[in-house]
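Milestone 3.1: sequence recovery, worked example.
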């Protein structure tokens, strides 16, 4: 793996690991799934394929952030507004 891509992959892994702390099924479940996904693609050496995987990982990161914001919004709405 090329050095610039390696740093991007490590950054993405750390970011996803941080986001996984609040995962609804638990942080250990998320960490195990994340570790298996990264180790499954460990031997990939094609830079284009690695970039595509990085883009997919960034998409997952944005989706997790949206999930957490929505959960917090729903909790706040439930506290202050009667339905």
């Amino acid at each position: 793996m090329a050095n610039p891509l390696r740093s991007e992959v490590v950054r993405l892994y750390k970011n996803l690991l941080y986001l996984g702390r609040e995962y609804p099924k638990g942080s250990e479940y998320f960490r195990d799934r994340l570790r298996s996904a990264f180790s499954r693609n460990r031997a990939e050496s094609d830079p284009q394929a690695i970039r595509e995987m990085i883009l997919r990982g960034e998409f997952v990161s944005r989706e997790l952030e949206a999930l957490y914001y929505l959960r917090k919004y729903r909790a706040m709405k439930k506290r202050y507004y009667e339905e």
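DSSP finds three helices and no strands in the chain. The chain has a mean pLDDT of 88.
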